[in-house]
């Protein structure tokens, strides 16, 4: 049956490649040039990266780079299947949530000897980023970028509601009545008759524009931020057990559900639930929401959806425990099983070089891993009339890193399923919190 | 090849038996030789993996480290796993949405095309086209068609004043959409088999019945349907098996979401095996799916055995 083919093909391919243990011939190496595979998951960042890599290829005529792009959901299952099949890409983006597993399984190249040999200056990187990737003197990746979460807004929607960007400063929320954050979002939410959610006769089934859009497969762009602002810790300690079932965390989850189902100020989950919902730049771009909580890596996407000063970025609101944002960074890593370690190291050096990161920052793709280039990124956006320094302030303020855990797979897969249900109103925040805590903790050995 | 057995001439008794045996051996050997390529494929790619999966279901293995034997633990775990039961129910829901609609639609189409008409042959090809297309590519195209903002479906609905739902992100609609895509894709194939079945029914029966003064409806229920049973049996069994194995449309269109609304067994197996890397547990789930299909197929066999006529002479 043809329906079975996709699945069995994956299974057979895996088994075959397992049996062959990377026996596939590399035809390219025989001709004198080496083809490196470079895997990433963000389409928005790809164009400037690709452009810079063309320069790398010019400087290294014997190396060709093939970019393998898969979206976040497919990326990890594909990469891990390839790792199991000993056919992973030579260089790939690594994420802190998979780092523990990968370093334990020995699939990442220790860069420390190479750094020493080529006298690479690692002090240029943000130390907060670089330190997270060192284990027992081994270095498993060099910083690619960093990101925080901000409140993207449509300038037109703000104007239409009679608000100015300054009105989004200093907003606060609380679990009881939603605070000034909800009040402002109510002003930005209108139904087809022009009524707001706090007015009599407001029809929550016929909303023309919502105040806020949220979407996050893991929680990074939505409830983790509220959790941090409410004094919730997702884990008892790094590498420790999950503590999402604590009251402060449940309240944060409840708040995100309330924004949709109680206050009617956030786009319903039937629209935005990942992985099928449209990305938030589109939701705001077509006027269905006035603002969106999203990561700094989405700037280019918002600029495409709302060009020529059509959008701006404000700080996230403050909660009962103050301000705060999730802070994260990626690294470029070299596969330990690469057949071209020398060439892969050359590529990695390029990707983490000032020249490459400057080019990517100038294109406004991501905040660079090299500290001195932060201004390049900020200036690139300033030239377009967008003030992005809020992300940097957020990074310097109270932040929460991605949870460090061996249970990343389980957490990611279950969270997508469980929180989809919470946002739809099919599961209570309390039950969801208990479920994700139990399931993720069960996966920790 | 059976027909090629040399005709036995009258020869003394024992020699005749000898020759007959030799001929049979030759025939059988010939048959196996001809079967060998497909048999090898069948054993290597279908039978061996079944045993492989059955064995793997007794282990805990993340694909990277060494597998460890856990006995029946995986089965105990899945029996108590609410998500497995959800996946079983989702799968059954899909089969129930898919099979009746597909079979009735295909039967109606086959009846309509089973007459001489202009462009009949071209229509047959058109109806079978979706079946020949790649399910993954189709899934992507249907995702566009059902896009709530830019999709054709909601634009057409909008023209008549209906505010179309968010087809793939609304848990109430996701599964019906998946099922309808597959109905659309496989109806042509089912129609083709039923059409062949219809054409095998002797005309004389209809003529005799017409002379006896029966109505077309009577003829359908007393002649067409009973004599179509072998074909119906075939499409019902194979399509039901195929439906229980639904994967690609779900993988491309919904990834089991929203909130698990389309998390069918095969997708759940994929998720456990290739997202969570629990290949032992995924194998145990695959055995459950295998048992489920075996059960349903056996039930279908029992139901049709007594009611099916193969010989029209």
TrEMBL record, chain A:
CDD domains: PBP2_TMBP_like. One of its GO terms (cellular component) is cell envelope. It holds the Pfam family SBP_bac_8. It is found in: Cell envelope. Residues 1-19 form the signal peptide. Keywords: Signal, Transport. Belongs to the bacterial solute-binding protein 1 family. This is Sugar ABC transporter substrate-binding protein. It comes from Microbispora hainanensis. The lineage of its organism: Bacteria, Bacillati, Actinomycetota, Actinomycetes, Streptosporangiales.
């Amino acid at each position: 049956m043809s329906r079975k083919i996709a699945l069995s093909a994956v299974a057979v391919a895996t088994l075959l490649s397992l049996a062959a243990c990377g026996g596939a011939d590399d035809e390219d190496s025989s001709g004198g040039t080496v083809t490196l595979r470079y895997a990433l998951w963000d389409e928005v960042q790809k164009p400037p990266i690709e452009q810079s890599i063309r320069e790398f290829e010019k400087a290294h005529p014997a190396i060709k780079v093939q970019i393998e792009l898969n979206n976040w959901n497919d990326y990890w299952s594909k990469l891990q299947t390839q790792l199991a099949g000993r056919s992973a890409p030579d260089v790939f983006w690594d994420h802190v949530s998979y780092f523990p597993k990968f370093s334990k399984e020995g699939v990442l190249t220790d860069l420390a000897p190479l750094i020493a040999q080529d006298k690479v200056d690692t002090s240029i990187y943000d130390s907060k980023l670089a330190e997270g990737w060192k284990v027992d003197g081994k270095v498993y990746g060099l910083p690619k970028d960093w990101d925080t979460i901000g409140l993207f807004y449509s300038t037109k929607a703000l104007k239409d509601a009679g608000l100015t960007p300054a009105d989004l400063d200093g907003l606060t929320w609380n679990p009881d009545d939603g605070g000034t954050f909800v009040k402002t979002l109510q002003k930005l939410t209108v139904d087809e008759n022009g009524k707001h959610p706090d007015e009599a006769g407001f029809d929550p089934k016929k909303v023309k524009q919502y105040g806020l859009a949220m979407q996050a497969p893991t929680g990074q762009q939505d409830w983790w931020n509220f959790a941090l602002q409410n004094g919730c810790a997702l884990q008892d300690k790094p590498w420790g057990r999950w503590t999402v079932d604590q009251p402060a965390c449940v309240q944060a989850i409840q708040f995100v559900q309330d924004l949709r189902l109680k206050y009617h100020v956030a786009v319903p989950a039937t629209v935005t639930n990942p992985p099928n919902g449209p990305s938030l730049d589109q939701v705001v771009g077509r006027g269905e929401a006035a603002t969106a909580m999203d990561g700094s890596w989405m700037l280019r996407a918002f600029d495409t959806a709302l060009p020529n000063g059509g959008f701006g970025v404000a700080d996230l609101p403050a909660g009962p425990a103050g301000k705060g944002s999730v802070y994260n960074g990626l690294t470029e890593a070299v596969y330990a099983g690469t057949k071209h370690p020398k060439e892969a190291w050359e590529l990695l050096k390029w990707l983490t070089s000032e020249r490459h990161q400057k080019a990517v920052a100038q294109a406004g793709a991501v905040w660079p891993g090299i500290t001195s280039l932060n201004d390049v990124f900020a200036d690139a956006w300033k030239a377009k009339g967008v003030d992005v320094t809020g992300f940097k302030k957020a990074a310097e303020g109270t932040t929460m890193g991605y949870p460090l855990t061996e249970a990343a797979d389980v957490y990611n897969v279950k969270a997508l399923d469980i929180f989809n249900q919470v946002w739809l109103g099919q599961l209570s925040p309390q039950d969801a919190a208990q479920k994700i805590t139990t399931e993720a903790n069960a996966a920790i050995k | 090849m059976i027909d090629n057995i040399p005709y036995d001439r009258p020869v003394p008794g024992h020699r005749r038996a000898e020759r007959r045996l030799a001929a049979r051996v030759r025939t059988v050997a010939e048959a196996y030789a001809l079967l060998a390529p497909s048999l090898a494929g069948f054993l290597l790619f279908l039978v061996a993996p079944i045993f492989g999966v059955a064995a793997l279901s007794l282990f805990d293995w993340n694909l990277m480290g060494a597998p460890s034997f856990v006995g029946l633990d995986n089965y105990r775990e899945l029996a108590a796993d609410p998500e497995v039961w959800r996946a079983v129910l989702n799968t059954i829901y899909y089969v129930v949405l898919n099979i009746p609609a597909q079979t009735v639609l295909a039967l109606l189409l086959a009846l309509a095309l089973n007459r001489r008409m202009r462009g009949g042959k071209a229509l047959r090809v058109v109806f079978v086209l979706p079946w020949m297309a790649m399910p993954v590519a189709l899934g992507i195209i249907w995702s566009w068609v059902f896009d709530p903002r830019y999709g054709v479906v909601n634009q057409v609905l909008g023209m008549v004043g209906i505010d179309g739902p968010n087809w793939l992100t609304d848990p109430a609609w996701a599964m019906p959409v998946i099922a309808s895509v597959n109905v659309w894709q496989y109806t042509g194939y089912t129609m083709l088999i039923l059409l062949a079945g219809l054409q095998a029914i002797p005309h004389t029966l209809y003529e005799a019945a017409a002379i006896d003064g029966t109505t077309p409806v009577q003829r359908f229920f007393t002649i067409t349907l009973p004599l179509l049973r072998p074909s119906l049996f075939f499409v019902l069994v194979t399509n039901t098996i195929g439906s229980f194995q639904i994967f690609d449309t779900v993988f491309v269109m919904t990834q089991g979401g929203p909130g698990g609304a389309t998390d069918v067994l095969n997708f759940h197996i994929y998720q456990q095996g290739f997202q969570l890397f629990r290949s032992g547990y995924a194998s145990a789930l695959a055995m459950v799916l295998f048992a489920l299909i075996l059960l349903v197929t056996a039930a279908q066999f029992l139901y049709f055995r007594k009611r099916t006529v193969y010989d029209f002479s």
